[in-house]
């Protein structure tokens, strides 16, 4: 293998600025390396062995990065915990992952303390002061900041958000490789987008690191020698400021970010030098075609798209691909494959929507502790996360919607994403969700929930104006029958819409048979 992988790079150039915290604190590669090494020595002294798991409930920044780097060279599974979870939800993940150590940042002390019961008190550690937790600095004190012996590659184990039931950990077998060799193999993901190793390159972490893609893209950029610049919470103008300040070359974003960026006044958008941008990658939700065109016009040919899942496999669309196939989420990775099937699991022709299945060579995974769920998601060596889409004649994938979000009205399948993509273009709409609500005659009718743009008053007049804007753009059968308004749309910080929070109240007291 070559010379990639954080640990090799840090030994060769300990003075390289490897990470910048949201408050601007810089961390050299040498400092991060020593901290991760001390942590491995300390946790091994407590009895942790390869195959064990650790959990971290920590904000974006060097603390979580240290946990990640320790686990990935000690053969442990590292599970970053969603910091929006409640005490019982945290307790479930700590117990289900069989965590042998729990690291809690003082910012999340209240929920984290309530959820800590699954981990014995002697293995609870804190960044900052948390009652009942031992400070990490005390844990590592006296341990050497030198490479631990018998290094072996660990892995992350992320929990899927799960549209139904409790989240499940996606667990892959450990490779047994040298950690740097395993890290170098990981860089294949970023190479799909043409990303090159070395400096000067900087990757902006715009979303919480507990998300799979955020960890993967950030961690892999680090293993290529790029500096990680962390945001604490996403803000459109702050992102532009950081891109200019740190000469950002890559980032991982979602279409909601694009919509907010495009809503900035033109003088704000033009204020910042974005000439360093080279690989601005987006995923997590379909991007409305006019929004993507607008970003390409503003940023140039640096906007890449992909479709993938925590479970493995996916597609990529270069700017050139997308311009030739507007609306696509890309074609299969070289080491992945796509299959579209009908409800009887038979392959369908090009242009016909069906359930999207993917596979990736060497990607054996299981939903930890749930063989039934693992089997239900599989079709031979393929798996699905329940998305509906179709392939064109050239093998490019277009997503229609999630199977769970499909609206069936009068026996007709209606895809909410198609309607959302039209409604979001209205200048008075900041965010929108479309879903089915009960209708005694039709089974379901189409409901839109809109977050008005700043300074716009909600009400019947606005609803009428929004609906009229669909004239000539969307068949009337796809128009929402009604529009409700909310102050803030319930989204995860990575942009994923929590649609069930909006939809469930309309279905209370009914057995949903659709």
Automatic annotation (TrEMBL):
InterPro entries: AMP-bd_C, AMP-bd_C_sf, AMP-binding_CS, AMP-dep_synth/lig_dom, ANL_N_sf. Gene3D superfamilies: 3.30.300.30, N-terminal domain of ligase-like. One of its GO terms (biological process) is fatty acid metabolic process. GO terms for molecular function: medium-chain fatty acid-CoA ligase activity. Residues 418-496 form the AMP-binding enzyme C-terminal domain. Residues 7-359 form the AMP-dependent synthetase/ligase domain. This is Acyl-CoA ligase.
């Amino acid at each position: 293998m070559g010379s990639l992988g954080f640990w090799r790079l840090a030994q060769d150039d300990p003075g390289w600025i490897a990470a910048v915290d949201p408050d601007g604190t810089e961390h050299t590669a040498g400092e991060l390396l020593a901290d991760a090494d001390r942590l491995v020595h300390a946790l091994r002294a407590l009895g942790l062995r390869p195959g064990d798991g650790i959990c971290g409930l920590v904000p974006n920044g060097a603390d979580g990065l240290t946990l990640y780097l320790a686990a990935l060279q000690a053969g442990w599974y590292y599970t970053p915990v969603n910091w929006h979870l409640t005490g019982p939800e945290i307790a479930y993940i700590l117990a289900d992952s069989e965590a042998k150590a729990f690291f809690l940042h003082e910012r999340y002390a209240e929920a984290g303390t309530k959820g800590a019961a699954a981990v014995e008190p002697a293995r609870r550690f804190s960044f900052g002061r948390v009652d009942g937790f031992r400070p990490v600095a005390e844990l590592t004190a006296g341990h050497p900041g030198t490479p631990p012996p018998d290094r072996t590659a660990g892995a992350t184990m992320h929990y899927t958000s799960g549209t139904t039931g409790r989240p499940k950990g996606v667990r892959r077998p450990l490779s047994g490789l040298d950690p740097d060799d395993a890290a170098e193999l990981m860089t294949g993901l970023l190479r799909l987008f043409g990303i090159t190793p070395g400096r000067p390159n900087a990757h902006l972490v715009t979303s919480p690191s507990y998300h799979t893609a955020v960890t993967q893209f950030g961690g892999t950029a680090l293993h290529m020698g790029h500096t990680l610049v962390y945001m604490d919470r996403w803000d459109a103008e702050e992102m532009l400021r950081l891109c200019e300040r740190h000469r950002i070359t890559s980032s991982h974003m979602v279409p909601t970010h694009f919509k907010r960026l495009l809503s900035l006044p033109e003088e704000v958008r033009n204020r910042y030098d974005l000439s360093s941008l080279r690989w601005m990658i987006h995923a997590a939700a379909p991007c409305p075609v006019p929004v993507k065109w607008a970003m390409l016009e503003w940023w140039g040919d640096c906007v890449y798209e992909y479709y993938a899942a925590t479970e493995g496999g996916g597609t990529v669309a270069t700017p050139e691909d997308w311009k030739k196939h507007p609306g696509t989420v890309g074609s299969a990775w070289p080491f992945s494959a796509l299959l579209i099937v009908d409800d009887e699991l038979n392959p369908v022709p090009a242009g016909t929507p069906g359930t999207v299945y993917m596979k990736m060579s060497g990607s054996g995974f299981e939903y930890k502790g749930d063989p039934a769920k693992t089997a239900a998601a599989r079709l031979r060596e393929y798996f699905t996360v329940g998305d509906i889409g179709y392939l064109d004649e050239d093998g490019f994938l277009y997503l229609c919607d999630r199977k769970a979000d499909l609206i069936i009205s009068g026996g007709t399948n209606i895809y909410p994403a198609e309607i959302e993509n039209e409604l979001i273009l209205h200048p008075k709409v900041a965010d929108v969700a479309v879903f089915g609500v009960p209708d005694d005659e039709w089974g379901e009718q189409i409901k839109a929930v809109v977050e008005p743009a700043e300074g716009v008053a909600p009400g019947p007049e606005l609803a009428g104006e929004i609906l009229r804007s669909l004239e000539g753009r969307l068949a009337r059968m796809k128009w929402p029958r009604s529009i409700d308004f909310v102050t803030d749309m319930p989204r995860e910080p990575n942009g994923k819409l929590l649609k069930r929070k909006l939809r469930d109240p309309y279905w209370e007291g009914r057995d949903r048979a659709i």
